[in-house]
Structures are given as C-alpha cells and as structure tokens.
Specification:
16 helices, 450 residues, nine-stranded mixed β-sheet, alpha/beta, five-stranded mixed β-sheet
C-alpha cells in the first residue's frame, strides 16, 4: 500500500502501536489474514474465528516478514510491531478506506445476486486489453475480501475491478465507503439472502446502498432485463444491458455453437461488436454484455472489446477444480431448495397440482428445446402424465468438455430436490440421468390417486 506506513495505519484506525524498535515509516504491503501467505512487508490481521484465533499466529506472521500486525491484543512476550484496536474489522476498514482515498484510478464495483464473479472476470478481460487491471481474487467479495482487494492496488495498476457481495442491510454501505466506486455494475436482483433481506425490494435496497457513495455523474450499468434494475431510479448516469430491444447495450443473433463457444452481436448505438465467447450459455452472453458496456463507457475500441471477450477465462481458470465444484454444488443446491419452498407454497392452492403435468408438457419444448442445446423424446404428455427421455443436455456437454463431468451431478440432483414431494398427489421419478452415465434423463411426473 503505497505511502501507507505502519504509523499512518495506526493513526487512521486510532489504534495503539505497541512494540520496541519499530520502523514506524515502513510501508505496508498487502492485507493478509492467513499467516501462511504472509510476504515481506504485509499487514497481518488477526481475526478470531470459531475454531482458529489469528492472535495465536502473530509471532509466526512477524517471523515471516510482516511489517506489522493488526490485533485486539498482543501475545505474551511479543515485542515487535502490533497495532492494538478494539475491533480489527472496523480498524481494517478505516485503514483501507484511507488508502483507497489516496488512489486516483477508476474503481468498478460489481454487485448482484448472481453472476458477480463471471462479470468481474469478463470486465477485467476486456479492460486488460488496454490497461493494467487489479481484480478481486477468486470470490473474496465480503467485508474481509474487499479491503484485501483494495490493499493490493499498486501504482502500476490503471483500474481496479472489485466484486462486492452482501447478505444484509448496511453491509454494502460499509463496502462502498471503503471502495468508493467510480462505476457500478449490477448483474441481477434475485432471491438470495431473503432470510435477512425479506424480498426482492429488500435485495434492491441493500444492493442500492452503493449508489450513496458514488458521484452524481458516475456511470451505473444495470441489467435491463431485470424488473427491479430496469425500474431503478438514481441520480447517476444509468446504462442498461440485456437482450431486450430497449436496452442501451444489447445482444442480437445469439448462437450456442458448442459446449465451449457462444457467439452474438453486441449493439450500442451505431456500434456493433461481434463477440466470440469461449464459454457456453446465455448467462455468459450477459457477462459479455457487462464487459462490453464497461468498455464502451470507458472509451475502448470495438476491436479491444471483442478481443477482451475472446480472452475471457472460465471459472476453472480462476480457482481450483475442487473449489469450483464445491462452489457450484452449494449454489445449485441452495437455489433448488428455494424453488422447492416456493412450489410447496403454490401447491396449497386447491386443485393446482392437477395442472402441473400439463404445464411441464407445454413449457418444456419452449425452455429446453433444440435452440437451447437440448434434445428429448416425448413419451407421454396427456392424461395427467408427463414423461420424456432427455437425450442431450448442454449442462452435461459443458461439464464433460471442461473436464469435470462430476459437476453435472448437482444439476441432476437439483431437479430431484425441487420436484420430488412437492405435492402428495404428484409423483416425480427418474431411473437414470446423463450425469450419472445413463443414455438419457428419463423424467416422469404424474398425478397419483384420486
């Protein structure tokens, strides 16, 4: 952290600098919370967790070259530099907010219920065609991860792309007070953390706290296909992206060419960029739109934007395979249980269950047809029974292509979580799936009993 010395850090957070023979003017490196990752000059922050207390590793961090530690107490016998504060989280936020205020570079804040990491990677890929970009590492996007990201900004960086995730009211205010974004990107407002945010309006209010810490003329890029974001009213300069014709930045001629190749044309006013996205699916079109929108507003050329989208690296490139599998499994399972709870409520409507097989029969060809990369044989779609054999699934194809076929299991399991037991008179059944080596997914949903 350029010009953030040990003494200045202590002054920023109002902490007491303890120790003997301290080099008060030593410049701090990055913020680190794991003593195993400490490099010379870093600031080690001693968090006390449920199972591990960072205070037990202060001496280890200093032995490895940390310039200073931020802690709530000094271990017995430790005589080296420790800034003691009542609350390390609050102190860290003050230090990193002060450091951010000293920087004169664009900071792009990315938030939304889903798609933040993909947006961060795509935007970074686009901007890297012209500038040196500092981006959030992996998905370190919370009240610990954001200050860690800010601390890694160096004079060599031209722009920072900061992912910002929250789960409750007031959290975005704390993140934005540190990051002070000069541009915001909102991916989507969805049913995440409703146990704290209550409903979609609550999610929008919580995410919208970022705008209070931005200039009135700052660009705010939002998903124009999202109802809440489309209706967002703010004093900043709002730009929409999406598939709708009324979006400022929109995608046309979308083609899912293969499990690792999606193409579209991105239109912005009179400008048209042909995008070749090295990943599968419509959700990646949205990521490309986010990257393009940021590129357009920051003055990149069409060629730079196209090259950046083509240079996008997939999830497996930014975290280990094990981490990616765990992340996606957890996310898909969580979404499935949310959908299940919604269906259970809907099934309380008298007689509604009788219409479910017909709804499946009518909507499946629209949502899971050949244009979306699926193929299926209809076996029965009348008489209260819906049965098909799905012989091709793009989720399965993409997982196999990227070398993680085991990932497909979570998509198979999510169907069973969602539909099994949604009503006593509806029977959901499968004997095989593509994800577990079957020649198809044999879906069956039927009414049982009178």
């Amino acid at each position: 952290m350029k010009n953030m010395t040990v003494l200045r850090a202590a002054q920023c957070c109002g902490g007491k600098l303890c120790g003997e023979n301290i080099n008060e003017y030593a410049e701090l490196g990055s913020v680190v919370i794991d003593s195993r990752c400490v490099q010379t000059g870093d600031l080690f922050v001693a968090y006390k967790g449920e199972r591990v207390d960072g205070h037990d590793y202060i001496s280890t961090a200093l032995d490895k070259g940390a310039a200073c530690c931020l802690a709530e107490r000094v271990p017995d016998g430790e005589k080296r530099a420790v800034i003691v504060v009542p609350d390390v989280q609050e102190a860290l936020e003050k230090i990193c907010a002060e450091y951010r205020a000293s920087l004169d570079i664009p900071v792009i804040g990315i938030t939304g219920s889903v798609g933040k990491t993909s947006a961060k990677e795509m935007i970074s890929a686009v901007l890297s065609q012209r500038w040196s970009v500092l981006k959030t590492d992996k998905n370190l996007n919370n009240q610990i991860g954001v200050p860690m990201t800010l601390s890694r900004i160096t004079p060599e960086n031209d722009v920072a792309v900061v992912e910002m995730g929250i789960s409750g009211f007031g959290e975005m205010s704390r993140l934005a007070a540190m990051a002070r974004p000069t541009m915001a990107v909102y991916t989507v407002i969805g049913h995440a953390h409703l146990e704290f945010l209550h409903d979609l309006d609550g999610v929008m209010r919580a995410k919208g706290e970022m705008l209070d810490y931005m200039a009135d003329d700052a660009p705010v890029i939002v998903n124009g296909d999202d109802e809440k974001l489309r209706a967002l009213s703010c004093c900043q300069k709002k730009t929409t992206f999406g598939l709708g014709e009324d979006c400022d930045v929109r995608a046309e001629n979308i083609r899912c060419v293969s499990a690792a190749h999606t193409e579209c044309d991105i239109v912005y006013g009179e400008r048209r960029v042909h995008a070749v996205i090295p990943a599968f699916g419509q959700h990646m079109v949205y990521a490309a739109l986010e990257g393009a929108a940021v590129g357009f507003l920051l003055g990149l050329t069409d060629d730079e934007i196209a090259a950046g989208i083509a240079a996008y690296e997939t999830l497996q490139s930014v975290m280990s395979k094990e981490e990616a599998l765990q992340t996606v499994h957890g996310y898909v399972e969580q979404k499935a249980w949310r959908m299940k709870r919604l269906l259970l409520k809907l099934m309380r409507i008298p007689g509604l269950y009788r219409r479910v097989p017909g709804i499946f029969a009518r909507e499946t060809p629209k949502l899971f047809g050949e244009t979306a990369g699926f193929a299926a044989r209809e076996l029965q779609t009348t008489g209260g029974v819906w049965r098909i054999d799905m012989t091709k699934c793009p989720y399965h194809d993409a997982c196999v292509h990227y070398g993680c076929p085991e990932l497909c299991h979570c998509f198979c399991d999510s169907d069973d979580i969602t539909y099994d037991g949604m009503h006593p008179k509806l029977y959901w059944h499968r004997t095989k799936t593509l994800g577990r080596g079957g020649d198809c997914c044999d879906f069956c949903l039927k009414i049982v009993g009178k």
